[in-house]
Amino acid sequence: MVFDFKVIALLSSLAVLLGWAVWSDLRQHRISNVLSYGGVVVGLGLQFVLAGPLGLLDGVVGMACAALPMLALWMLGGTSAGDVKLMAVVGAFLGGKLAVLALVGTMLLGGCMGLVFMLYGRRAGAVGGDLRMPYAPAIALGSGAAVWFAATH
Questions:
Q1: Which residues 6+ apart lie within 8 Å of 48 measured at CB?
Q2: Considering only CA atoms, which of 32, 139, 74 is closest in space to residue 147?
Q3: pLDDT tens digits for 88-103?
Q4: Structural contact between residues 92 and 143, judged by C-beta atoms closer than 8 angstroms
C-alpha cells in the first residue's frame, strides 16, 4: 500500500468517523444514522476521487464484504444494526480486500471483548441482556489492524 496525500486523507477521514462512532457507542450505546449514511457517502466519494469508477465499485464491494456477515449476525441477535452500518462505512472506505481483513480483525477482537464482558457480567451479577457491549471499539481496532497489516506486508 502506497501512502500519498489522497490515501492519507481517506484513512484520516475514516479514523475521525470511527473515533466518533466509538465515543457515541461508549456513551450512548448508539451509532448515529448521520454518521453511518454520511460515512458511506464520504467513503464512496473518496473512492471515486482516488480511483474513478473502479474505486467506487471497490467501495461498494467492500461495503458488501464487510456488512453482509454482520447483517447475518444482526439477524441472529448477535449485534446491533448500528454495528452493521458502521462496518458498511468501513467497507466503503477500505474497499473489498481490506474490508475482509477489517472484518476478520473486528470479529477476533469482538470475540475477545465478548468473553471479557461475559466474565464481567457474571461477576457484576448481570442477568441476560442487562450488560450491553459496545462493539464500535472492536470495529475501530479491527479496521486499524487491517490497515496496519496491509501497510506492513
A1: 55, 56, 59
A2: 139
A3: 999 999 999 999 999 9
A4: no
